[in-house]
Structures are given as C-alpha cells and as structure tokens.
Design a protein that fits this description.
The protein has 148 residues and is of the alpha+beta class. It has one domain (7-141): Nucleoside Triphosphate Pyrophosphohydrolase, CATH 3.90.79.10. The protein has two helices and seven strands. The protein has helices at residues 51-63, 129-141, and strands spanning 7-16, 21-25, 38-39, 41-44, 72-81, 89-100, 111-115. Strands 1, 2, 3, 4, 5, 6 and 7 form a seven-stranded mixed beta sheet that branches. A hairpin with a 7-residue loop joins strand 5 (72-81) and strand 6 (89-100). The longest helix has 13 residues, at 51-63. The model has no long low-confidence stretch (mean pLDDT 90).
Amino acid sequence: MNNSYTREIAAALLIDVNGNVLLQQRDNIPHIIQPGKVGLFGGHREGEETFLECVVREIAEEISQHIPAERFQHLFSLDGADPEGPGGHLRGEFFVAYDVPTDALVITEGKLLIVLPDAIRKMQSKLTPTTLMAVNAFMSRQISPAGR
C-alpha cells in the first residue's frame, strides 16, 4: 500500500443551540471538490498539526468563531479510497460540536445551511459523500452533548 495520502482532512458536523445541523452549501466553482454540494465545515490538514488542531483551525476560518478543542467529540475516522476523488486516497477525522450560536457566525466559504435534524435525510442526494457518512454516523450513534 502506498503510504502517501492524496488528502488528509478534518471536518465537523456542527449543531446549533437549538439542535439544528449547520452545514455548508459549497461554492459552485470547478476547482473545488464536490462543487455546489452540501458539506461539512472543515478542510485540509497543514504541516504537523493534529486532526483536532486542524478542525479547530478550519472551523474558526470558515465560520469566524473559535470553538475550543475540548468541545469537539470524535465521530469517526476514514482511511481508504477517497469517496469524493475517484482513484485517490483519503485520511480523515470527523467530529461533532454542539451548542454553536448561529447569531455570531460569519461564513467565509460557501453559504450556511441550517437544517432541522429530521429534514437532513430528505437532502441526501445534495450531500457530499463524506457528509453523508458523517450524518449517518451521527444518527446511528446519537452522540449527545456533554453534560446533557
């Protein structure tokens, strides 16, 4: 097996203070992966940062709000064929963070979608493959916010 990865990413399923899912309507430009689809907030790992450090940085960059590392709960890992880039390899860590206040968010990439949990299954065809995996993992595990 080739040990070099095509992509190394960290992304998070964000849940607002009302229990709604916060997703990113990706820009519809050809040079990005899955243009126009609905995805998670997150992105590519840089240098020697951990996946947790990556998700904290990427979320802060994309929603203009810092969510501390301890607020992210691990959702699942992916290390294999890249479901979004045929022939590629993806190594990714996916997280969930709760109680994200939407009133202070400034989205710097794409557009914010606030989705009721019950409505997310109806939009499966609009989700990127990794977002669908994250939603399914979240729904099957029913991860709850700490202290609730």
